[in-house]
Amino acid sequence: VIFRNVIVKTPGKSYVNGLTTSDLGIPDYNQLLIQHEAYVEALKKCDVEVTHLPANEDYPDSTFVEDTAVLTRQFAVVANPGAASRNAEIVEMEPVLTNFFHKIYTIKYPGTLDGGDVLQADQHFYIGLSTRTNEEGARQLKEILETEGYKATIIQLKEFFHLKTGIAYLGNNIMVVAGEFIDHPAFEQYEKIVVSKKNEYSANCIRVNDYVILPKGYEETKKKIEGAGFKTIELEMSEFQKQDGGLSCLSLRF
Ligand code: CIR
Questions:
Q1: What tens digit of pLDDT does each residue of 158-167 get?
Q2: Which Gene3D superfamilies does the protein's record reference (predicted)?
Q3: DSSP characters for 118-162?
Q4: How confident is the model at residue 231 (pLDDT cuts 50, 70, 90)?
Q5: Which of 137, 182, 197, 203 has its CA 20 to 30 A from that of 127?
Q6: Is CATH 3.30.360.10 what the domain over 5-253 is classified as, yes or no?
């Protein structure tokens, strides 16, 4: 897939009060802004048009825009985020999406779905069942995707927070996999770049056109990705990691 557009959102000061399960400490807001700015610059280097939304202090986690939607070039699906404090993030995202898409679907209650649980690999989507995405939300998305001519497979997560916490698709039939996905039957048909336990955070990387962007400090993963023929960009992600966020979470790409 070639991406032309990305949507990002500056984190607000309230970010430090967002949801997290990690015990890495309180994010430093100044560092966070520097890291977010570097993320935006990296995307620009990947030759995409960046739509940069301003911070919204009412939603501490709203910089993680990926969770609000599932996008292809042809259509958008507005998600229904499973965390109560995040659900209304879609209210601000939907009008932004109408600038780009004529066809917009929505995931409806009792279905819940976070975009972070959805991975596209060419014509095939994988949908994770997590603490955020329930069976009804996954079923609704699968139905929408099948109507649009895609395949969809639903996957029960065991340990990972979101599906994409542990897996990324780089194109050319190559999957980056960690933990429970390394031997998962659903991903048997792919060539795999296996991420070791201590490098697990780097499984959340993103291919954007000519580059793979990955978090800084994961030399082993970087070598494997470069060994597969990709150019890489490394980004410091410490302040996002503190709130359970990764590289994919920070943008919607289409
Ligand atoms: C949350 O708990 O919702 C945020 N603190 C982190 C969301 C990360 N998003 C993602 O993995 N797609």
A1: 999 999 999 9
A2: L-arginine/glycine Amidinotransferase, Chain A (3.75.10.10)
A3: EEEETTEEEEEE-SSS-HHHHHHHHHHHHHTT-EEEEEE-SS-SS
A4: very high
A5: 197
A6: no
